[in-house]
């Protein structure tokens, strides 16, 4: 079959039954076929007292673990996530983030990105963006932020976009929502945040309630920006902070983002970059361990030209990056006791060592930071 729809079914099955059913669904679908699922997660949605309740209120991550663990009998096919999000009507009407939908696709499985993980989403959630890691990043960047410079650089970069009330913004790799909240609250735009890390989006939904941002202002999706499809010319602005470094085929992504933008729409990206030429073994090991695909700033900008964008501006912001790192290290050292209280001494040491290593790579000239602005032609 080409498409399978499931609504409030898996929540009534035991774990082994869910896993068995996912296997059958995978076998029934044609290659590239899609599976849509909706489930109640985490807890009961209503407050009605029940004498007996056969429902299993699982964490969304449990369903993700089920479908990610599957391959077809010959090992060639498995499920790939296209997107997942909380149902907006439930958030808006009942302040309930626990009604979750997924759209999966049957695809040929590729090699695992790292030992012990099934997919890039699994890699991010288990390693770089575990919940504890996200909280540490937030501690150093500032509440609701997980990208370089936190609110300070967000204010600077968003100011370049001349946002207007009613505009639609796509935030690619928007993390736990800091930039999206800032744009929605200060400029009256509606922001769609897509991030491949389910840990990020789970925390973002909590932060949205904390700052008072509803689904009419910011919508969150777990999804892969290289696979997610939106209607052509859906967004006035596309914004992305320090995440495209994870994507190898940047040109294909830029062409996709170009399609999503309205004529005259604007694109702004900050991202980790590298120096041109040969790199040290230490730097190459760091890039491999992180799963990064880095380019020199000028090369990065040329890909935007090639994708069809005009008025492309490519800036090497490494000097600013080094200044930000220096401030972040000083602030972290000053707040040492807070880290010990909220985390532990080992977390503090690992974070500080990581930032000092990053500072050294920047000072050696191998790691750089780029800022890129581009527009889609008006006609």
Automatic annotation (TrEMBL):
InterPro entries: Methyltranfer_dom, SAM-dependent_MTases_sf. It comes from the Eukaryota. Gene3D superfamilies: Vaccinia Virus protein VP39. One of its GO terms (molecular function) is phosphoethanolamine N-methyltransferase activity. The keyword Transferase applies. Pathway: Lipid metabolism; Phospholipid metabolism; phosphatidylcholine biosynthesis. Residues 166-289 form the Methyltransferase domain. One of its GO terms (biological process) is methylation. It catalyses: N,N-dimethylethanolamine phosphate + S-adenosyl-L-methionine = phosphocholine + S-adenosyl-L-homocysteine + H(+); N-methylethanolamine phosphate + S-adenosyl-L-methionine = N,N-dimethylethanolamine phosphate + S-adenosyl-L-homocysteine + H(+). Its EC number is 2.1.1.103. Pfam families: Methyltransf_31 (PF13847). PANTHER family: PHOSPHOETHANOLAMINE METHYLTRANSFERASE, PHOSPHOETHANOLAMINE METHYLTRANSFERASE ISOFORM X1. This is phosphoethanolamine N-methyltransferase. The gene is 106063257.
